[in-house]
Fold this protein.
Amino acid sequence: MTKKRTGSSASLKMLLAIPLAVALIFMFSCKDRGQAAREATPAVKAAPSGAEAEASDEVFKLVDQMPVFRNDTTYKELTQWLGKNVKYPAEAVSREIQGRVFVQFIVDEQGNVKDPKVIMGVDPLLDQAALEVVSGMPPWSPGIKGGKPVKVYMKVPISFVLK
């Protein structure tokens, strides 16, 4: 009789907290397994042809030494280069389109940027501007695996922000 009853809002909060806790436990338990599997397997294998038969056509996601832009492992040089060279489309400015475009590309054995593609875009105008700037990048230092230069996938976020 002297026991205080719990209100309906407290019961509702508990009902919402339980599924949230289960979802978080599930997400964090699955995260590490998927990442390890992605890093352990090469991304692409293509059939070698002609003179390329001697060189491996494998494209890796993770190697012993990742490609580096202008010998800067902090990628500060890359950020500065992108900031100077990205061209914000005039139509996107007038329509006030902003966002971050993620571009994936391959750094080949010679350090050249190949096959850029938008993996997460904002708008076709910004996506195209991001592809153009990545296509015009100077050579990188290639990725190294087992002491040899190899092809490596890289991803770069390019932010378009109006001031």
Observations:
- Strands lie at 59-60, 99-107, 113-120, 143-145, 148-160.
